[in-house]
Structure formats: C-alpha cells, structure tokens
C-alpha cells in the first residue's frame, strides 16, 4: 500500500509510461487494534451523501476558475443505455492529461464547499457511521467516486480506509484517463473481502451499507447488511431476508414536500 495522498509514490504498471495507485489507501487514521473485530463498509453516494459526487464534482471542476480550462471541450458522457461500469470508466477519461496533484487539490477545495451546504449527509447513515466509530469498528468507504473527493470526506467523518478506483498516471504524474477497474458492483465486494482478510475480520461480524442494486454483492458479503433508501431490488431483500433499512434521499424529498 502506498501513501494516502493521491499524487505520491505511484506503482509501476505494465505500461512503462504509466503507473497505477492501489485501490486500497492505507489507514487514514491509526486503528487502536491491529485486527479490528468488526469492519463497517459504506457506499458513499446516496448512502452517506445526499448527492452524486462525480456529477457534482464535475460541475465544480468545469466551472471553477482554476480548473475550467482543463475541462474545455469535455462533457459528462451520456448515461442512457450504458452500463454503470463503463460510465465510470468514461467519467475518468474526462481527466486525461490532468496533473494528479491538481486533481487532489481541487477535490479538497470542492469538499470544503460541499461540507457547508445545507444537508450534505443523510442523517441516519451518518449516525450509524458515528456509532461504528464509537464502538471501535474500522469504517471503510467503498465508492467509484473520485478519490480526490473521497479522501477529504473520509478524514472529516473519521473513516479509516478508502477503497476506490485506481487512476493511471504517466511518468510525469499526469492522469492518462484510464482506471484499472471501476469500483462498482462485484469489485466492491472483492475489495472488501481483501480488507477483511488482511485484518482477520470475520465477514459474519461485519456490516455493509448501500443504496443501489449494484451494491448487492457487498451487502451479501457481510453478515449485517443495511439498505439505505427505496431501491426496489434491495427492498425485496429487506422483506425476504430481514435486512435492516435506513431512510435515504427519498425521505428528504418527501419531508421537503
């Protein structure tokens, strides 16, 4: 594992002109136990946050004075009829040629503004995360959102680990626009399983939180799955399998009405 800062110590990749960062950032804060008994895995968008981070960050990136020139001539790819994994790859291609350090700095600036919006986080999942921290559990964020946004969020909420996309860079530290794999669907479960094995945690004792049917592999992996929101596929599991459920963004819309 390399340093948690997104621009340092890239690993050598099969292409001698590009490098890859590990999916698993090291612990952002030391855990009191080298092998925590329980790990709580949280998806981010619409599980913890009230927004879709990639879209919101792109809006910031493409309009902020410092970064708008880097976004010139580029636009978010169409979502209709495109698999989530491919959309995730297309999203990161928007940043081809961007210095990785600049992306990291922009993520920190974006998060500073996002954090002071009216309601950045869903109350119930945020309370659950804080309860896990108070109980001594290792909190892990698992998301396909940009790591530049996830790292300041993780530090703010006290998460110990971030599992995200591996962005490739060239020898000069510029993003190639490619990732090794989207952190969506089964990839989330695979990454979580690696963390549990590394820390000696029993999956039966671990918790997972997700809001979308693509989170199903992660939720099934853990002994204590919790559905956030009203996704119809996940709602079926709450009824059939007795999974826990917390209110999601839909509840905020109903309250505002």
Automatic annotation (TrEMBL):
<dbReference type="InterPro" id="IPR023214">
    <property type="entry name" value="HAD_sf"/>
</dbReference>
<protein>
    <recommendedName>
        <fullName>HAD family hydrolase</fullName>
    </recommendedName>
</protein>
<feature type="compositionally biased region" description="Basic residues">
    <location>
        <begin position="1"/>
        <end position="11"/>
    </location>
</feature>
<dbReference type="Pfam" id="PF12710">
    <property type="entry name" value="HAD"/>
</dbReference>
<keyword id="KW-0378">Hydrolase</keyword>
<dbReference type="GO" id="GO:0016787">
    <property type="term" value="F:hydrolase activity"/>
</dbReference>
<comment type="similarity">
    <text>Belongs to the HAD-like hydrolase superfamily. SerB family.</text>
</comment>
<keyword id="KW-0460">Magnesium</keyword>
<dbReference type="InterPro" id="IPR050582">
    <property type="entry name" value="HAD-like_SerB"/>
</dbReference>
<feature type="region of interest" description="Disordered">
    <location>
        <begin position="1"/>
        <end position="29"/>
    </location>
</feature>
<dbReference type="InterPro" id="IPR036412">
    <property type="entry name" value="HAD-like_sf"/>
</dbReference>
<keyword id="KW-0479">Metal-binding</keyword>
<dbReference type="InterPro" id="IPR006385">
    <property type="entry name" value="HAD_hydro_SerB1"/>
</dbReference>
<dbReference type="GO" id="GO:0046872">
    <property type="term" value="F:metal ion binding"/>
</dbReference>
């Amino acid at each position: 594992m390399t340093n948690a800062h997104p621009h340092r110590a890239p690993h050598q990749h099969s292409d001698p002109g590009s490098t890859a960062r590990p999916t698993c950032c090291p612990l952002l804060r030391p855990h009191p136990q080298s092998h925590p008994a329980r790990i709580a895995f949280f998806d981010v968008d619409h599980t913890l946050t009230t927004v879709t981070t990639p879209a919101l960050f792109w809006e910031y990136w493409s309009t902020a004075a410092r970064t708008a020139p880097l976004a010139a001539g580029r636009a978010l790819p169409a979502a209709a009829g495109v698999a989530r994994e491919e959309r995730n790859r297309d999203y990161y291609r928007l940043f081809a040629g961007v210095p990785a350090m600049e992306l990291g700095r922009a993520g920190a600036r974006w998060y500073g503004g996002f954090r002071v919006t009216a309601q950045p986080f869903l109350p119930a999942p945020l309370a659950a995360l804080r309860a896990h921290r108070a109980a001594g559990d290792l909190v892990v964020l698992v998301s396909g959102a940009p790591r530049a946004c996830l790292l300041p969020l993780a530090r703010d909420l006290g998460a110990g680990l971030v599992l995200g996309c591996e962005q490739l860079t060239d020898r000069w530290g510029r993003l190639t626009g490619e990732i090794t794999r989207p952190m969506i669907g089964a990839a989330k479960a695979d990454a979580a399983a690696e963390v549990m094995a590394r820390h000696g945690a029993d999956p039966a004792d671990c918790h997972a939180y997700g809001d979308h049917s693509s989170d199903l592999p992660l939720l099934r992996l853990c002994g204590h799955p919790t559905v956030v929101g009203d996704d119809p596929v996940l709602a079926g599991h709450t009824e059939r399998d007795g999974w826990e459920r917390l209110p999601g963004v839909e509840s905020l819309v109903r309250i505002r009405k």
